[in-house]
Amino acid sequence: MSSLLTKLKSVAKRTFMSEQTAKPITEFDYPTLPWIDKKDADIPAFLKQFPGAKNLPYDLEEKMNFWRENGYVILDKAIPNLWIDQLLNEVEELIDQHEKYKTLVRIDLPEYKANPVLPVKDVPKKVLNGPYIKYMDFHDNSVIGKKIMLHQNIVTFLSAVFGDRVIGMQSLLFKYGSQQATHQDFAYVVSEIPSHLAAAWIALEDVHIDSGPLYYYPGSHTIGKFNFGNGIFFNGQSTLNPNDFASYLDETCQKAGLKKKTLLIKKGDVLLWHAALAHGGDEIRDPVLTRKSFVCHYSSDKAYRHHRQSPEVEPTRRTINGADVFVNPHMPDQEDIFSTGKSI
């Protein structure tokens, strides 16, 4: 996995590094920014030519203006409860019958530090049901997971933001708050054009203030990028670390007068955010409380052309609402094994 990520990051780095000077980049490359991030972006003119603005439960122009200024939008009641309940039922099946499945989980517990990513079949049920667990790319296994990831309400907005076909890159599903320090996704999530990246945080239950809710700094997508010592991407050659990154973001946002907001939304609501929005996970003040979440990352067709685990192979695509997600080339036998979503 690490060698594949290194290869993809190398592609991204070469794209945004001067061949003459070979200096690491310290900002996004302006000519390759999504159109909406450029100084002359004309949202009304764009929407006159955009075919997907009709039949949405929100005002697309209003949301795009808000995104441009703040780096995020919230879509109320974007995902039906029926779909969410089906997804959660499948996760419970995955946990209960974990010996049958190969889905990967990341375990952020001290006893798993040497080997934090494992198939669920190799992890005790008690651990799978607890905090510090992230189910990786469960959408590979689940039809309803793909349908939620590429729901029309999400895809239409992001296709307008990118001005391009949307590609679902990866997903994380978890029961408890992440308690992750402040960060920006582009430093860790690899797209060949780093600015062509967005994410969705989908609430699988109502969020409680004591459950370690997500927080974010509106407008932080415009602050100067953090330099890890070798550029804006964190990797094995970086001389600074994620804690330095978090400190920089918190301090810079505060100096800029950007106010931290806490995300207290309801089941089925969706937060969509920009690649450079500074955000994190608050402290869990009541360990009994869950914060069931489905987080998905997206790129554009021009910026994400191959599955990250097989960057040199033409991907097999699943298409929903005019957007694509790639079949996992390493676990084809696990693709869509939870198939009830076909009839929903």
Number of helices: 8
Mean pLDDT: 93
Radius of gyration: 19 Å
Model regions low in confidence, pLDDT < 50 over at least 5 residues? 1-21
Largest sheet descriptor:
10 strands, mixed
Residue fraction in strands: 15-25%
The CATH homologous superfamily is named: q2cbj1_9rhob like domain
Task: Supply the helix-strand structural class.
Answer: alpha+beta
CATH class designation: Mainly Beta
Verbal overview:
The protein starts with a helix and ends in an 18-residue tail after the last strand. The protein has eight helices and 13 strands. The protein has helices at 2-15, 43-49, 60-70, 81-96, 125-128, 143-149, 152-162, 242-255; strands at 72-75, 104-107, 117-119, 133-136, 166-174, 198-203, 214-216, 261-262, 270-274, 279-281, 293-300, 317-320, 323-326. It has one domain (2-343): q2cbj1_9rhob like domain (Jelly Rolls, Sandwich), CATH 2.60.120. Residues 1-21 have low confidence and may be disordered. The longest helix has 16 residues, at 81-96. It is globular, with a radius of gyration of 19 Å. The protein has 344 residues and is an alpha+beta fold. Strands 1, 2, 3, 4, 5, 6, 9, 11, 12 and 13 form a ten-stranded mixed beta sheet that branches. Strand 12 (317-320) and strand 13 form a beta hairpin.
List the helices and strands and how they pair.
Layout: H1 2-15, H2 43-49, H3 60-70, E1 72-75, H4 81-96, E2 104-107, E3 117-119, H5 125-128, E4 133-136, H6 143-149, H7 152-162, E5 166-174, E6 198-203, E7 214-216, H8 242-255, E8 261-262, E9 270-274, E10 279-281, E11 293-300, E12 317-320, E13 323-326
Parallel strand pairs: 5-13
Antiparallel strand pairs: 1-9, 2-3, 2-4, 4-5, 5-11, 6-9, 6-11, 7-8, 7-10, 12-13
Helix pairs in contact: 4-6
